[in-house]
Amino acid sequence: xxxxxxxxxxxxxxxxxxxxxxxxxxxxxxxxxxxxxxxxxxxxxxxxxxxxxxxxxxxxxxxxxxxxxxxxxxxxxxxxxxxxxxxxxxxxxxxxxxxxxxxxxxxxxxxxxxxxxxxxxxxxxxxxxxxxxxxxxxxxxxxxxxxxx
Length: 149
Fold this sequence. Notes:
This protein is an alpha/beta fold and 149 residues long.
């Protein structure tokens, strides 16, 4: 798949409908950071969020326990979402492969052809340079508005 072209709506909709647990690498407790807002919306939409932040002084974000690394997550992760520099993606792709994730999703501005190729060769679906928070509210998606906040 060419990750520099627009993704088919069905491809994104299928991913967002099928994943349940999302590990967010680069999650921040700072409410002014974009990763915080994305974590909040995904959590409010019913996803089981697993914030990943290596800082030992951060034990939770929005009341959700944090993990130091992907390997520390205590349950199956469906999707690894990345808020890191593009250079970090190949290593993160390998970690996602190692834990048996089904999807590698990199945030807007984060792209690595090497990481995409590694992940796809291992059977993962890949989305690069996109935001799941934005994609959730495209016309093909029906938000889970019945959920409490």
